Amino acid sequence: MSNLIPWGTTRWDPFKDLEEIGDRFNRIFGRLPEYRPVNREALTVADWMPAVNISEDDKEYVIKAEVPEVDKKDVKISVEDGVLSIQGERKKEKEEKGKKFHRIESSYGSFFRSFTLPENVAQDKLTADFKDGILFVHLPKTEQPKPKAIEVKVA
After folding, report:
1. Average pLDDT of the chain?
2. For residue 34, what is the DSSP state?
3. Which of 36, 132, 128 is nearest to 87 (CA)?
4. pTM for this predicted structure
5. Would residue 155 count as lying in a domain?
């Protein structure tokens, strides 16, 4: 009975309980494909998903994907039916004798991300490059025809 805590001496933290529930759902459903009925982005099971930032300026859209420890030869970028797909693999480090890991929080294995492209993207002119573990995908914009003013004469 010495393990009992008197009522009212501890504070209930609902956010901690919600976090635990969220962690359980992530463990159960974390490897299921994301369902998106509205657009044509692919439904694929992946081991992990790189964080992505998408920005835009007057000339292009830029997708910045965080892919540390991924070799550029292990990344494939494709465009099909207006959907950009980025897929690849982060390979696990080889085990070394005498080396102990106390914590591993990095995700390894295959990854896949897909994005529906806006209509004003020149799909045949996209470029990509790697720098410091970041994949940059450049999507140049196409020239949009400028609206013409038409004068209407009233009789």
Report:
1. 81
2. P
3. 128
4. 0.63
5. no
How many CA atoms within 13 Å lie on the side-chain side of 74?
16
Instruction: Classify burial at 65, counting beta carbons within 10 Å of its beta carbon; exposed 0-12, middle 13-18, buried 19 or more.
Output: buried
Residue 84: per-residue pLDDT: 94
Give strand ranges (E) for 13-151: 52-56, 60-66, 75-80, 83-90, 109-116, 127-131, 134-140
Report the CATH number that the domain containing residue 20 is assigned in CATH: 2.60.40.790
Q: What is the pLDDT of residues 74-102, one digit of tens each?
A: 999 999 989 999 999 988 877 777 888 78
- Residue 151 inside a domain? The answer is no
Strand partners, 48: 111
Tokens of 146: 């400028």
